[in-house]
Amino acid sequence: MNTLRAGAQSPRPLEVLGIDEMEESTYSALLSHRLATTEDIASLLSLSPRKAQRLLDSIESKGLASHSPERPRRYIAASPELAIEALASQRQADIERARSIIPVLKKQISSSHDTQESEQLVELITSRAALGQIVVQMLQTVQSEIVGFQRAPTLQIQGFPYEMPPDLRIRTISDAGYLALPGALNSLRQDIKKGEEARVSPTLPIKMMIVDRRVGLIPLNVEDQGGPVMLVRSSSLLDALYALFELTWERSTPIVFTQTGELKTGTPDSRLSDAAEQVIPLLAAGLNDKAIAYEAGMSTTTLNRRIGELMKSFGTRTRFQLGWRAAMDAFPQQPAASTRSKKTPKGG
For the chain, which residues make up each domain, given as ranges? Predict the structure, then answer.
């Protein structure tokens, strides 16, 4: 998905524990030399003795080293299994304490908006900086799924530098205009290699991205890259948008690439296509199930299963609806009203 393409490298692993680059180098030097004095570290890292001493004092305060009582002091590195694990546990405890304040803050919101909902279900985002921050927050907290419609022009949002959950499912539907953008196919090819599921539809009604079926982004003007974007939180509206995606997904064509990297659009389930060609004309002819099964060369059980698959594929619940949808797909330019007989005015 275009908003997920990384634009920066991941931070150094120890950086998240509050260990800067020079402290990490000092710790690594101690690990390599077992015991070392301030002068040894200064020589190894090409630092002044004063700077080396400050670094040794700093990593010692963080539990990464200890020193001997004699003079000059000799420093020894703490075991990584113990030192890093202790720092990580402390950081995790800090994070949990920060999370514990969320309910308190939400109560403050509720108390200050007695006559309003504590959280807006729909919010209009007009600032690009705010939009970028919201996208990062959405992707930082994603748990299981991202779905979206991709249309040209794309949203120009800063890349996401963090790792995604390993079992995250990403599904996108692109229209023909998006695929025609310079570099779009190459980006899509790379995303599919990473596990993204992609399909193409001739046209799409909107652009959107939905995360975990709990929050979505929909630009109000699909042609304006800098226009306002609607933020939709968990609600009936978001459920309807997700249902629109699923319906479009079922009717879209899978995108695959050959071994040489060339685009190869897949085809819908051939079994469903064959069933449609076999079964629908026989249903339209008014044959009963036994006769249809005989003509199609299948058992009545298989026939009922194929009809059920066709009804699901067309998004219908009854055979009448299936026939109607099949007719509408076969004659898309034929207005529905023309299928009804017009009454002859009386007294003409």
Answer: 9-119, 130-265, 270-334
CA atoms within 13 A on the CB side of 3: 27
Q: Which of 137, 156, 160, 192 is nearest to 6 (CA)?
A: 160
Low-confidence residues in the chain, pLDDT < 70:
1-11, 109-119, 155-163, 259-276, 285, 315, 327-348
- The per-residue pLDDT for 118 is 44
pLDDT, residue 58, reads: 94
Nearest-5° Cα angle at 234, 233 to 237: 85
Predicted confidence at residue 5, as pLDDT, reads 42
Following DSSP, what letter does each residue of 110-153 receive, concatenated? HHH-TTS-SS-SEEEE--HHHHHHHHHHHHHS--SEEEEEE-SS
130-265 placed in CATH 3.30.870.10 = yes
What is the CATH topology of the domain spanning 9-119?
A: Arc Repressor Mutant, subunit A (1.10.10)
Give just the sign of the alpha carbon dihedral 84, 90, 95, 99: positive
Report the pLDDT value the prediction gives residue 31, as an integer from 0 to 100.
92
Distance between CA atoms of 142 and 148, rounded to whole angstroms? 14
Residue count (the chain)? 348
Query: Residues 66, 60: contact at Cβ < 8 Å?
Result: yes
